[in-house]
Amino acid sequence: MSGSLPPPRIAGQADAEALFTGLSRWRREVMAVAYLDPEWRLLALRHVGGERDHLALPIRSILRDVLAWEAARVVVAHNHPSGDAEPSDGDRAGTRQLAQLLRAIDVTLVDHLVIGAGVVTSLRMRGAL
């Protein structure tokens, strides 16, 4: 009886934090995007690299991947190599823009997590979604 394990479910912030925890080790900003099906199962995970202290939110790529994977939900996370998990104004603005565009195609942006040194900040918990 051979078979692969079912994809993990990302049903809450603890699951998402566990999925993205490795981002804290990078010395440049890196974003990871998790694409989920309607039952919260992971369909795909994509990483995008940025500069040492800056990362442009790849909205066009995220929308393309959502359509390709037929995702129902998206969770985004990126690190701050400085260790400070406080979201920037750009983080908040990009998150709102991405959430609005995803809503237009009936997809939910579950959260955007900013990962610092041992600290994770949820933009959903901060009211940005």
From TrEMBL:
<feature type="domain" description="MPN">
    <location>
        <begin position="8"/>
        <end position="129"/>
    </location>
</feature>
<dbReference type="InterPro" id="IPR025657">
    <property type="entry name" value="RadC_JAB"/>
</dbReference>
<keyword id="KW-0479">Metal-binding</keyword>
<dbReference type="GO" id="GO:0006508">
    <property type="term" value="P:proteolysis"/>
</dbReference>
<dbReference type="InterPro" id="IPR037518">
    <property type="entry name" value="MPN"/>
</dbReference>
<dbReference type="GO" id="GO:0046872">
    <property type="term" value="F:metal ion binding"/>
</dbReference>
<dbReference type="InterPro" id="IPR020891">
    <property type="entry name" value="UPF0758_CS"/>
</dbReference>
<keyword id="KW-0862">Zinc</keyword>
<keyword id="KW-0482">Metalloprotease</keyword>
<keyword id="KW-0645">Protease</keyword>
<dbReference type="Pfam" id="PF04002">
    <property type="entry name" value="RadC"/>
</dbReference>
<dbReference type="GO" id="GO:0008237">
    <property type="term" value="F:metallopeptidase activity"/>
</dbReference>
<protein>
    <submittedName>
        <fullName>DNA repair protein RadC</fullName>
    </submittedName>
</protein>
<keyword id="KW-0378">Hydrolase</keyword>
<dbReference type="InterPro" id="IPR001405">
    <property type="entry name" value="UPF0758"/>
</dbReference>
